[in-house]
Amino acid sequence: MGHPKFARPKTDRPTHPWKEARIEEEHRLKEQFGLKKVGGMREIWREKSALRRHRNQAMKLIGRVDSSEGHFAREKGDLLRSLHNKGLLHEESSLDDVLSITVEQMLSRRLQSVVYFKGLAPSMRSARTLIVHGHISIGDQRMTVPGYKILRSEEEELGYSPSSPYIDPQHAFRKEMEERRMPGSTNEEEDAGNNAEEEFVEQVKADAESAPTIEDTIPKEGE
User: Fold this and answer.
1) Is this prediction's pTM over 0.70?
2) Which residues are CB-contacts of 113 (< 8 A; sequence separation ≥ 6)?
3) Looking at 58, 84, 106, which one is the last position of a domain?
4) What's the domain range around 124?
5) What mean pLDDT is reported for the chain?
């Protein structure tokens, strides 16, 4: 049974570790959503496990003879309301729509994906770099977890952190992103943009490494 003080892991590993079709699909998702190069599969398994829990709860409610009133009606409403707030369902969705949610939809609601979709980063990988190094915030809260599940109500407050240099619309990085979004870009321009993106990621990492730490700001004895 386990000790109630210690929570069990909520991520289920694949039942068969060497299925070629599943491995190829997960590698495709890892590249598509810019997940970690080492350990990115765990992020996919986490979303699949969460999706499986949503589906199991929906199937349990669908199997009830009457879920229009009482406890099961409240459970049904809570489930649909929760998934709507998470951006996975529309407001008028039913329990059957829960079964049609895909792992791609789950991954697209991660903070990393939403940062990219809102145009705050040129790619999924650079979106992850911006988040990890503290350049993204929701309201006044700086976010550093790429896998955070952003709610519908938080999307309007998503933006660059007040202390980030990229909050300036005239910053070279933001002006370059605007130029790349303009129609009519050629393959050569796209390749150049990809090279610039790699340089941008490395520059963000270098700036973070050279930034002063908390220990550096504490005066030493004799100073």
Assistant:
1) yes
2) 33, 107, 124, 127
3) 106
4) 110-209
5) 82
